[in-house]
Protein 1
Amino acid sequence: MIAPRSWLPTPVLSILLLIVWLLLARSYAFGQFVLGGALAILIPLLTYRFWDSKPRIKKPFKLLRYVLRVLGDIVTANFEVAYLIANPWRTLKPHFIEYPLMLEERFTITLLASTISLTPGTVSANLRLDGKSLLIHALNVDDEEALIEQIRERYERPLKEIYEC
Amino acid sequence: MSLLVEAITSLLLIAGGVFVFIGSLGMAHLRDFYMRLHGPTKATTLGIGCMLIASMLYFWSVDGKPDIQEMLITLFLFITAPVSAHLLAKTGLHMQLRHTDTTGGKPFELRDEEVGDKPVPHPDKGHG
């Protein structure tokens, strides 16, 4: 939870809200700035109890690289999944995988789980109650260890460097 | 609108349509709930991405000024798709839906006996 005293508990969220408002309104008139600004201040004030305090980004450039890598992976892996689905002679080997988590913060675990779901071939199915492992369902797995290793090296380690160190 | 822009736009539209179609095809004919989940969450992200880029290109060339409103749709999609997929999968596990026999791995969520563990400590309140 974020300290309730300040009138602007989550500055980044406020800026994001203002930008989204302006883009949705498709106008940059003064009135839209006033309305969007009022919402950008009011909404965080009403919802700050809901938010975890967000860990600080320690390496912004690595974050940029991470986002680009995930986007690239989404594109390439989409082709793979499309091929898997469309190929009538395939034999899929779906697999439930227990992924032991290295991350500790709830926010970063959420990011990792979302990344896993977005990159095709894997869906994060359940975060265990103790927060130490993530259950993943994979569409086609040949080598379980290799998949775990791939997620660890490609996504989890960068996230840990970016947020937790 | 120049021929090149037109060609790129139509290519992107076709690619987007193909991806979305394959995603829905996966949802229709894969064999169990957990596999069907992959179709709509995945293939559609790229499919819709292609269509949105096509839309951006089209309106850029027609109106003459770039408009990034479509990026918002992508943003919302990327935030909501993994969450809904996760919730669906979690529900499936909770209901202990059947999966195909070829599925490897047996998570304890799908076993019959009760297995529990301590909940994640809340960052402010601890285990209270």
Protein 2
Amino acid sequence: MEYNVIYKMPDALSKKPFTYCPGCHHGIVHRLVAEVIDELGIREKTIIVAPVGCSVFAYEFFNLDGTVAPHGRATAVATGMKRANPDLVVFTYQGDGDLAAIGTAETIHTANRGERVTTIFINNAIYGMTGGQMAPTTLLGMKTTTSPYGRSPEREGYPVHVCEILKELKGVAFLARTKVTTPKDVLTTKKYIKKAFLAQIKNLGYGLVEVLSTCPTNWGVPPIKAMQWLEHNMVVEYPLGVFVDKVGEDK
Amino acid sequence: MKRGYIEIDRERCKGCGLCINVCPQKIIRFSEQFNTKGYHPAEQYDPEGRCTACGFCYMMCPDVCITVYKIVQPVRGDAK
Amino acid sequence: MKKLMMKGVEAIGEGAIRAGCRNYFGYPITPQSELTEYMARRLPEVGGSFLQAESEIAAVNMIYGASSVGKRVMTSTSSPGFSLMQEGISYIACAQLPAVFVNVVRGGPGLGDIQPSQGDYFQATKGGGHGDYRLIVLSPSTVQEATDLTMLAFDMADRYRNPVLIFADGLLGQMMEPVSFEEKEVTYDNSAWALTGAKGRSPRQVTSFNIDPYGLEKMNMELQKKYRQIEANEIRYEEYRTEDADVLIVAHGTVGRIAKSVVKMAREEGIKAGLFRPITLYPFAYEALSNYGEKTKLVLTVEMSSGQMLEDVKLSLCNKTRIEFYGRMAGVVPTPEEVFAYLKSLIGRQ
């Protein structure tokens, strides 16, 4: 019998094994970004800007030219690249600490300028690389190593809603929040990522996709349980959906 | 006649079990052996040929370990 | 060559444009905002890209980005803003990216004031941010020299793949003098390492990151090797009436210019004074200056700081002569008269 390969590792990924913990959603999102790059045929002109955090090695996992920015500054680095060479396709890959704490100013102003770059934003409500400290997106009551009694609004403030803040900025051309806990989610997320890239390719503005993701290691639960916890807690705090879409449907 | 099958890169696999959890046919399991990282990698166990090549395992795999193969459907009217 | 009357900061901007710089990212801060404004006006005229960043932190990272795709790029700022850029400069230095920085130094520390100063000498010449790295630091003393050194800075930055700093102050920045621009064809080619997209080749990485200490040490050794080359090739300084001098003034930048007047005043009164003016603050002219240890009776270092370059002067001379210091801080500019009076008091003259 004859069989065809219908799903395999995309070309835009390098073969290097990921350094993420078992079950971490980073890998799923990496693969989706690579699939979109392959489908758009832009691998040879796409540059990745990795952040500081668990995905600090991201630029080694893609078969792309790339760099790693100082903590929080990925979108500023991407801005410099895109302004200096508008023919490139530039994307940043950032976590919640990088994008929504130390890099808040860069995030907001890059979005507001409608910078022709794309951001993939991993929100797992915790600092992974440094060992499970509180993130700006940590849920109320959630225990982390720096909120050992649970996050309280009086002490640590409320979880930051990045999409809800950015949706008011006119430079944003595509903005969505999604998750990757089921195959259906995965397909939806891929569609969103493609649109976030098309936002820059079609010269419409800034594109960002926030992916609610698990951190089994620092949440202290097994991978499957982590996905259930995400469904029951994170999705409640962070509603899914498309916030801005100036890209429209692909023909 | 199998409709489809998967290959798992057992050295890349970290044994997270997301593919096992999502497989509608329940034909993926943890291997009893270890890989060199010390994980029990996932493996397909499909003696009855139930794999439909749906690709769910591939979609959920965080380590891009899975390649999915699907049978080439005979073209209608093909002599064979 | 045609001469134009230009302000120091504008002459730096025009020099950059004539050196092929087409990308500027910056944030307004006194006393250098006219340079930011000049670039905002001029860059669109030459097909370049100007962007006012949301902060100096963003600006330096935009520089990182633009440089990593292989383009000539610069920013300008003043002391507090330069402090904010230090993290990014450390990354740029380690990733071996060419870039030109201008620090129009003002009085500090803290918010300080907006008057001319040289109090950022340590920060400029000893690294400034975290880790073992150096900037090439150029200290002009006239508007013409500011222009020439800016154009040179871009060539040096590309040649060594290293950040280069123009160390100026508000006096030089605001001064108007005639300037002529060297007509030269701009050629530079960063295609061997720049991030241009992995087309027809394997992917490239521009990075300051290496989790393996042995790997990172190797990266550091490469940097150190480069610094030794820079030290061997790029030391620049000016000697003025030093042939027979037994009193030597060491001063750089604007103060070098003031010191030149002091030398003239001293010579008129029969004092055999000379000036040694470092132009590259890093690499510092240790060896050239050390020759004056035996030849002079007195070396007077003058700075608009509490004595920062003084430490390098002492390192050069190893106590082989008498070393004295005169400095004003916080944005106070010393006059030739007060420096001359101090010099005379040191040698027992009225």
Protein 3
Amino acid sequence: MSFNNPTRRGLLKTGAAASAALTLPTYLRADGHSGFTNAPQGSTVTLGFNVPQSGPYADEGADELRAYELAVEHLNGGGDGGLMNTFSSKALKGNGILGKKVEYVTGDTQTKSDAARASAKSMIEKDGAVMITGGSSSGVAVAVQALCQEAGVIFMAGLTHSNDTTGKDKRANGFRHFFNSYMSGAALAPVLANAYGTDRKAYHLTADYNWGYTTEEAVRSSTEAMGWETVNAVKTPLTQTDFSAYIAPVLQSGADTLVLNHYGGNMVNSLTNAVQFGLRDKQVNGKDFQIVVPLYSRLMAKGAGANVKGIFGSTNWHWSLTDEGSKAFVKSFGEKYGFPPSQAAHTCYVQALLYADAVERAGSFNPCAVVEALEGFEFDGMGNGKTLYRAEDHQCFKDVLVVKGKENPTSEFDLLEIVEITPVEQVTYAPDHPQFAGGSLGTCNPGA
Amino acid sequence: MDAILLQILNGLDKGSAYALIALGLTLIFGTLGVVNFAHGALFMIGAFCAVTFSKMLSFSHVVIDETQKDFLGNPLKVDVPYLYDWFGQATGDAIIDWAVPLSIIFTIPVMIAIGFIMERGLIKHFYKRPHADQILVTFGLAIVLQEVIKYFYGANPIPTPAPAAFAGSFDFGALLGFDPNTIIYPYWRLVYFAFAAVIIGAVFAFLQFTTFGMVVRAGMADRETVGLLGINIDKRFTIMFGIAAAVAGLAGVMYAPINSPNYHMGMDFLVLSFVVVVVGGMGSLPGAVLAGFLLGVLESFASMAVVLEFIPGINQIIIYLVAIIILLTRPRGLMGRAGVMED
Amino acid sequence: MFGLNKKDFGLMVIVAILALAAPFILNPFPEGSAMAQFNAGYPDLMQRLVIFGIFAIGFNILFGLTGYLSFGHAAFLGVGSYAAIWMMKLLTLNVIPAIIVSVIIAGLFSLLVGWISLRRSGIYFSILTLAFAQMSYALAYSVLTPITGGETGLQPKYTDPRILDGALEEGQTPRANLFGLDMNQGFELSLGGWVFTFNAGYYLAAVVMLIAFYLSIRIFRSPFGMMLRAVKSNQQRLNYTGLNSKPYTLAAFVISGMYAGLAGGLLVAMDTQVGAERMFWTASGEVVLMTILGGAGTLIGPVLGAGFIKYMENIVSKINKSVLEQWFAFMPDGIEDLLITLVYPFVGKGWHLTLGLLFMLVVIFLPGGLVEGGQRIGRVFRRRDANADSVESDAAEQRKPAAE
């Protein structure tokens, strides 16, 4: 008799176990069958889409879910195939994954690490999901990534931008396609120096939690390397809604640039407040006052309305890209839902496809085989140019977009314009870079 | 010096929002004895009245523009508001630009109606129930209201700008002889402050100088005796609930340009406004207003970079810290009466 | 028996049977059937049900007996969790020290908070506790990041210096255990179409919950519990008799804080991760809702309330459109679409709406919470389940006069 991780259930849906009605108690050993957690049985495989459906990021979560549904449709051979046509790897055939039809379960992360883990656990324990993906914040990504490592399933991170996800909190079973704070800083700094000069005094407002810290550090170090001076950096509470008290003193400090290391609702409010204060009409040190938002999200930029016009930031992907991959994705997403996808939708769709492709190439759903297939994998045609899934930290290295709020938007989706596509070489860093220090992947865990 | 002046200004403005919400909360508590956890939701609905009204103003028909392309490469569909057709583009734009101030006219009746429905339909049945039940049922209502808003408007904030005339900021520093740009304040926030002052003044005047207000105050002091005098106090209380809802709604409408409204903004304000009410003293209208301004000013001071250098994180906790200190030194808050919600 | 009278013993037995047979009771639908969506018998949810049951039982000792409405109990749960995870990082992965330390630390913290907050009563007390909890949350999320992990929280890593365990092998995943028995171990029993999961962690939590429940019965029936009820019904009169009620209320506060710490420690033992959101005011509000929803002042009410809310959160939120399509697939197309359109706003991402509506319905029609609902149903059927029924109605009676 053996005690073991009791996680597989899919095998019971069909086949021997179900037909053996009223058998004596059976002690199941997952590894007796396949050697890893939630090995898909029968003709289907279940993926878990864990996205925020309530709370401030619910709309972003909804867009992620749309992308996943589209990805499942394409994987199962429906629709126009989307990015599968432009993807450099041709392992996917539109007959599911390894011939198994893709099914999925959804859950609500509430953008809280506890709720996200509860939801992911129910997918693993109850629904037999063999891969968990999604999420819209780094706290959730790190928490769920650690859970997946423990449980022995693959985690394909959704939108998570903090260095920590593939830095001090990296895990062997977790993979991130999205870019990170360091890359934002490295891509933005030259563009900013170009546009605003190398003699700038910057004032940072930073969301007072991990992501804010890593973003501030990244932007500071790369702008200071360009010759900028950081006058002050003030931390603002996550729960803050009115930033007037933080923005009012900015002009007094002698700074001529304001960097808002904020995301989501914080970003919308702080940017709106800053523009309200008329900062952008002011002249300081003989220069026009400028505002920078290191991480842009089109969905959130919508909330700030006209205030984003002319403001620089970085983004992982934007629908106005004109490469074949991006065009194919925008087309199939746009035709299905009637509006262009967000960067969150893009990264989630790509992650789902990358996972499926890795399984096909590995020939197995075994997490360790998948990890091996993804590590060091180079691909193209997914919208960001040539991309590498680096083996050392499971981070994707690809071009980063520097964008600017559009002056004359033609529609409610047309808010950002691409200023520069920063080549991958410029945003690549060593795996032991100090901003990413202190973590270790460990070894892949197949569970069971 | 200028930094301190600036933060006082800031705090007064922030405090005016707190004071307005706390005022409505206290009106309901003081008159009806009901702890209304849905008050934040009323504030939020007020802000969405502004959103709805500006959507109504820019109600459009679609014109296909062959010269431009949309993201799929099809001819671009351009929304043209009917107002353009009726008044021409310039006048139409001006009207849409003034949507937020104009929506006040729309908000007042809507909020009073919501207040009446809430009081008659739900709150009325909870006058005799324990406070815990009141909290639970109004909390449930708050969740329902915000989920309904989320269903129709989504979870993202919706930009609701102030009229262009109020863009930019006023330079107080120049007025007071400081260097230019040291003390600047956005026009719209000054409008908000003045607006809050007017509303607060109006509510006090209404309670103090009208017969209706006198009866309500009498009812707050001793409901049964007033009832015995043959006055239909219930009806007046319903009206008071409507007024409180309207006050919350107006606070929300005018707040919409300051922070883009989203469906959970009410919950964000709820806890804070409760702290304000309690620090002011349960049931005391002047207390609520005073506490609102006090906490607003202190919060602004705590967020100064100099202060944060000495005490990191003080901006995170200042409101609660002050609340604890005040409640420990003044048992019933700043101006609370003995025996109100102490058991 | 065990110092319980016959009625209480009966109730205890019922709860014990429910807890131990939960894997069966919570999985009433066969695997693969359309209704399997509603099965709750998987380890994580079962664990959460009993752990939040403990949390609510503890909260009820304070709120149900003394009437003091604390709005900051999640802080004790969070502090307990942080204490437990640090034990696992520094000392050993065995859950026993972690749980014990979490109870002690939460007890000390609640002693401090209680000592200050209990100087005031009524809503002033509530706001004081809320203030402490919000400060804990805000600090844990931001400035205390080196200790709490901030946004990303804390998880044990194989690189942690575990003094008692010795270093783990390179890359090995640290797992919480009880003297070598992994908390997430267990086995599955398949009977026909049904699958029942028995999980070591769940049974540990369930046993702890039963002990906690037993202690709460003893406290309810003790002279100490009597004194707390006296505080609730009229504190002034109690003080006039020359008794100082403060030590009693403080003791109740600390006990309920320790229950919260216990729940926090167990949460970590089952799922080795802590995040600061655990201490946010909505989490404190949740335990208030659980207790009132189930029936404040009743013995079993808080457990029912906790189960109800956690079930909603975990089950209803997972019903998405494609699940609905499966359910209604047998209907004609038009009706299917109509039903999906009608039901969809209330499930999946709309689960909060359903939760809010149910709160309102329960409070409006069942002022005594779910327990009262059970009693009404019991009365309809004229079943004479003498044991449980009368105990609960006792408790419900006690609640009423004090409610004003």
